[in-house]
Amino acid sequence: MQRVALDQLKEGMFLFEEARDLKGRLILSEGSEIKSSHISIFKKWGITGVSIYGEADEKESGTTGIDFELFEKTAKNVKKKFRHAGLSHPFMNELFRLSASHRFYANNLEPLNRVKIAEADEQKNVVKVNLRSELSKKKITLPEISTIVSELNEVINDPQSSAEDIATVVNKSPSLAARLLKIVNSSFYGFQSRIDSISRAVAVIGTKEISSLAIGLSAISVFKDIPKEIADMHLFLKHSLACGLLARIIAAHNNIPQTEQLFVAGLLHDIGRVVIYKDFSGQAAMLFRLCAGGDKLLYQEEKNWLGCKHTDVGKILLTKWNLPETLVHSVFYHHNPSRAREPVWPSIVHLADIIANGLGLGSSGERCVPQLDEKAMNNVSFSPGILEMIVKQATHQFASFVSFLTE
What we know:
Number of domains: 3
Order of helices and strands: EEEHEHHHHHHHHHHHHHHHHHHHH
Low-confidence stretches: 55-64, 110-118
Strand order of the largest sheet: 1-4
Number of strands: 4
Oligomer: single chain
CATH architecture of the largest domain: Orthogonal Bundle
Radius of gyration: 23 Å
């Protein structure tokens, strides 16, 4: 960090500390990139100098501390990932600041997808397809979900069902029951006393909540059997999990009681891509090649090569599985929630997806942060000021929670 006088301030520098005027009013947030317009504002409000990232006197004297050169490198790298999203909106600007800090401390400059990029001679054999047509003609066999999910749907829809009925279905799969109990007894809920049975978990948390978690955990089984040379499904699962955690936390901040259903919506938001990676590996590899440099967003290029987007495939898949309409719509509209008839849930998943991409928590294949639907900010009670708290909650839960789904 170094203190720079106003006449020496240049565009492209990054604020080390927030800039405030003589009355203490915030002018520009910590971590923001300085532009010419900011310098003009500083002059107007009587700011004579600011602290920026750079070589510091303490560092030169041998004192250990943050590697500011590496931080600047990280910030520039992260800024490239926001090229499509932009930083003009206060939410995106704050997310950029938090993302640069998170990636720096996590040593996460560039999470690689580790996918096979089609070579020039292979590209000649890749043709555009109409995936929606292939699905409607049943030329592509969609994965089946566990029979336990069908049974759970029946129990949920039965007004006479009890906690024991839910427990009976879940306990048919010892591995599923074990995972559910681990989650219930983790920091995800923070109960002081240990819950040692599914029926007790249902009684404490609720029928629909436990059923939603069970459905989500069962649904991720379709992530298996994807060729490793096409997609790194470990990163895919981590991204899906991060989005689920963030959606649940945002829902809680909005006093929405169905936090577990929103966790599942976040967990399954990109599930349509699993079908693409499995059945259209050539087109998937081509899409990765086109978007590898970050000049194009994956979800925008999908329609050109596949005739539809992964959100369309996700909607078809979840509808086939007879999952709740609110869940289906949250997945289908998560890139453009303002178009949804009921935009609150899709908006929460939309924001969760953007935050997860910004922080680099796993990857479903997208190299850059998607564009923000600004109306989503009005659909939920969400201000840039609470973003840091939400990120801290999510990253705290993420490290321990991911083991529940990958073990």
